[in-house]
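Homework-ish question, so no full write-ups if that breaks the rules, but can someone show me the predicted structure for this set?
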Amino acid sequence: MKFKLDEYRALATKQEGYEEAAKRFYDEVDRVSKNRWKIIKTSLDLCSRCGACSEECPYYNVTREEIYNPIYRVNLLRELYSRNYGVFGRLRRSLGRNRVSPEEIQALSENLYRCTMCRRCSLFCTFKVDNSLIVREGRVILSNLGIAPREIDEGVRMQLSVGTVTGMTRDGFLDIINFMKEEIKEKKGKSIDIPIDRKGVEMLLLHNSGDYLSFMEDVMGITEVLEAAGASWTLNTEFNEAVNYGLYYSDDILLRILKKHLEVARKLEVKRIVIGECGHAYKALKIFKRLLPEESKDFEILSILQVTDDYIRRGKLNLDPTKNKEPVTLHDSCNFARMGGIIEEPRRILKACVMDFREMYPNREYNYCCGGGSGLGLITHNKFLEWRMKVAGRKKVDQIKATGAKIVASSCANCKIQFRELIRYYNLDCRYSGIHELVANALVYR
Amino acid sequence: MIDLIIQFFSFFFPYVTLVLFLTLMSYRIITWLIRPMPVSWVLYPVLHSKVGVGRAILKDVVTLGSHFKADKRLWVAAITFHISFIVFAPHIIYFLSGTYIAIDPILLSLGMSKDSIFGLKFYLGSISGVIATITVFYFILWRIFCKKAREISSKEDYFNLTFLLLVILLGTYLRVYELVPANEYINYFLSLVSFNPIQPPTHPLFLAHFILAQLYLIYFPFSKCAHFMGLFVNQWIVRREW
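A: Not a homework solution, just the prediction itself:
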């Protein structure tokens, strides 16, 4: 099997890095695979390479290039496994024929960062082979060998030292909060309280720190919704970041960040942890909190979409859809829809606050990834932004165009980053928006 | 020497095959089941009752529904192959019918004559064998000539299909041309089941088919064909929220 590379580079690892990783590759596989999940083992064993999933991957669908076939990229890992494990692998190992070259490690690494782990392929497989988990296992092995995208690694380091991936400090955060209060006062004529580090409230709200800087309208929108509904909630200054990039590439980091989130919730004595408009952060806490059963047993994990939907259904929000006249379409974030089960909530919210809601097809659990998932939306160097636009986002662009909508609404920060670039790159006649920006726009204070 | 080999594969090896198949398949299943699954790893939307999940899994597996949504042409080939293979492979039941499993009396009570029962079995077996052969052959050609399939196919895929083609082709050839009288191999298989094996049919193609089928069964648990069991493990994981 040929280990191929495309012309883009997601990783900035130097040649020596790949050489070192090649030497220690099987030691790391041994370590990581010890507790390999059931579904990863079966997925590695059972794929019949029928190709049913291939066209369902938006990247292969638009390019028809072997290198973007979901089966090709996981076959690379299968090939390296078969060189060292199983009947023939053991034979090769005993003959010293199981060597992995640095070039193979580089090709494997790059290809594993051409998948956004959206799990759409799995949906179309009768065996439910989970390519995304195999990709994740490969990324975990590589990150333990020192190979990971610089942007993600630096963000994690920042988060574990300062508390946020953007490097936003406590003082910076408090300044932003004050600015938000002034903005809401100026726009809506309403003075609102934004509780910070308040103990014993019902909900701890965690935003993606990038939202404070790039998508502040959504943060303000969520604040207004909670204020209007009379919620008992708080933000925090200790670990003020929802994101958990460990989900994409490292078990160790995933657990360290999870622990921090649960520790903050415990200190503030809240009952619920509510995640703002961030798909992967919701998934990380909702699904992986089970890895820490003791620490997480007291907390319910919710998305802000569930909370707002609940307020609307209980008549706690007074919304005037005529304030959002432009046609709006919804991009289902993979982490919310297919992997989080939050499918109808954003629809109900949008239908309550916009005049013209248009479905995008395919949608719900069958949606296509925006092309920026699993951390790839952060990577821009070495022409990688071009890959995100030309390859990863092309299917989504076609979908958006077909709706004729003027606003693409999404509830995930990563998707919004991707839409910001796609709209610019393809000069699309529309803008992107978070769900809560639209809700706040339609919100009428009683 | 040849006689010795034939005797080995006719009297002793079938039992070895059975034991190996069951042991290796169980080993394979156990290696999957003992793995941890610490989190609920579902694909939404999910059903909340176990009966509902079971029904959904069964529907997907029987109709290959997920594949149907993805690739209709591949689905036609896959479903045709699986149906024909399932009809064809249990010719053991065909051998046993009228003895251990009372299919014949049921058919007789429905008004069928002995000749028409024999004809039904003969044509059902022959047609399904021919279809299974054609579909396996199609899969090989598809892997060779379809760009997408060629790119993702491994050596194992070709080996598996060629091996299977050989087994099915020989079986179908024997059946269609009636090279071995039905009662000869029925009696032989019945003697195997009763642990008192008699001389098998001596036609060389029958022996080739029989030996290859045994070797395929031993290879089966370690091939991707084990998906017939593994898919239930995966389906149960992704469809059930806990």
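Now go work out the reasoning yourself. Hint: Chain B touches chain A through 48 residues (CB under 8 Å).
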